[in-house]
């Protein structure tokens, strides 16, 4: 009998300070332990932006334990889905079954309303992705 392996998804943006952190938080919140979720940056900032923490807490998702990390700091194995978010030429080439490029603007240094708008856009995209990966599962 082949053991079940949970799907693995990776979210990548430039700094791993905003967009990919939000996506990681949403995916973990929606799928729980049914998916292994990772995020990384092509040029990691070394911090999660304060505004990211704030806008996610506004909707009850705590991402304060997540850390900004580079691509060399995540498991180097095949992913079921890799989602890049505006990293352009710096986007990684990592083994994956499916690759998505979400053209989402970088909110770093922007006003709170921009962070909220981008958060809401990411939530919808992550919800669709998780439903695609776990079609028979009810999401949180």
Can you put this structure into words, describing what you see?
The protein has 3 helices and 4 strands; from the N terminus they run βαβαββα. It has helices at 19-31, 50-58, 112-133, and strands at 8-13, 36-41, 79-84, 96-101. Strands 2-1-3-4 form a 4-stranded parallel sheet, with helices on one face. The longest helix has 22 residues, at 112-133. It starts with 7 loop residues before the first strand and ends in a 7-residue tail after the last helix. The model has no long low-confidence stretch (mean pLDDT 89).
From the spread of the alpha carbons, the general shape counts as: globular
Instruction: Walk across the major sheet and give the strand order.
Output: 2-1-3-4
**Annotation field: number of helices:** 3
The total of beta strands comes to 4
**First and last CA, distance:** 31 Å
Low-confidence stretches: none
The Cα radius of gyration reads 14 Å
* Beta-strand content bin: 15-25%
Structural class: alpha/beta
Reported for the largest beta sheet, the result is:
4 strands, parallel
What is the average per-residue confidence, as pLDDT, rounded to a whole number? 89
Helix-strand sequence: EHEHEEH
Oligomer: single chain
Task: Tell me roughly what share of residues is in helical segments.
Answer: 25-40%
List strands and helices in order, with pairings.
Layout (H helix, E strand, L loop, with lengths): L7 E6 L5 H13 L4 E6 L8 H9 L20 E6 L11 E6 L10 H22 L7
Parallel strand pairs: 1-2, 1-3, 3-4
Helix pairs in contact: 1-3, 2-3
